[in-house]
Amino acid sequence: MLRAQGVHKHFATPAGTLEVLRGVDLEVAPGETLAVLGESGSGKSTLLALLAGLDVPTHGRIEIDGRDTALLSERELADLRARRIGIVFQSFHLMGGLSAEENVSLPLELRGDRDARERARAALAQVGLSARADHLPARLSGGECQRVALARALVVEPGILLADEPSGSLDEQTGEAALDLLFDLVSRRGTALVVVTHSEKLAARCRRRVTLRAGRLAA
User: Fold this and answer.
1) Where are the domains of the chain?
2) CB atoms within 10 A of CB 109
3) Does the structure show a pLDDT above 90 at 111?
């Protein structure tokens, strides 16, 4: 379903070339839950962006359902993400001028689904936010915003869910509740989950874990 083969990622800096990833190999099977651990600056978010098709490797290849992302056009990549991949960001990335329902329906509307609003309401009900559907993000708590972000990621019924420190900006109690909901939903839907984190506690909830060190993965 999701594969990285010999992936390198370099960035040009005033001080020279920065090698963030150095030959990463990774496979994620359908329905698998995988934690990618690593210290801050280890390249976890860079790897997640590559797996999501938001960027392409300097060398190596990323395959989603057997398709090399580097060979796809921007339109093809956008369509693949819209239909196969859900992303949960640490800072939520909600549109401030849109209600919770509008934020959740947005990816469906962008791909032309006629029942976008109906499905958005159903997704919000799943995360316990039916009563907050008309509220803007500024009127929601951090935990509620994270649940809206989760509903938005899952409403497209993705085969793959990528999460970047999904509870990192929440207090402990609210974060635990968000993670309980996340793992419950991916389990019931059979969605593959890749979560990048520095939290051993979060990693322990996944079936498999790998660690990024010096740009390479260690099991």
Assistant:
1) 2-218
2) 13
3) no
Token match 């190596």: residue?
A: 60
Query: What residue has token string 């060979």?
Result: 71
Sign of the CA dihedral with 127 first, then 128, 129, and 130 last = positive
* Higher pLDDT, residue 167 or 2: 2
pTM: 0.88
Residue type, position 172, single letter: E
Three-state SS letters, 16-70: EEEEEEEEEEEEECCCCEEEEECCCCCCHHHHHHHHCCCCCCCEEEEEECCEEHH
The owner of tokens 């609210």 is 174
Percent of the chain past pLDDT 90, that is, above it, reads 53
Strand partners, 46: none
2-218 topology per CATH: Rossmann fold (3.40.50)
Distances (CA, A) of 132 to 62, 135, 148, 198, 205: 38, 5, 10, 31, 29
Residue 174: predicted pLDDT: 77
Going by pLDDT thresholds of 50, 70 and 90, the confidence category of residue 39 is: confident
Cα dist from 144 to 42, 72, 116, 170, whole Å? 29, 35, 21, 10
Tokens of residue 10, six digits? 């370099």
pLDDT of residue 192: 94
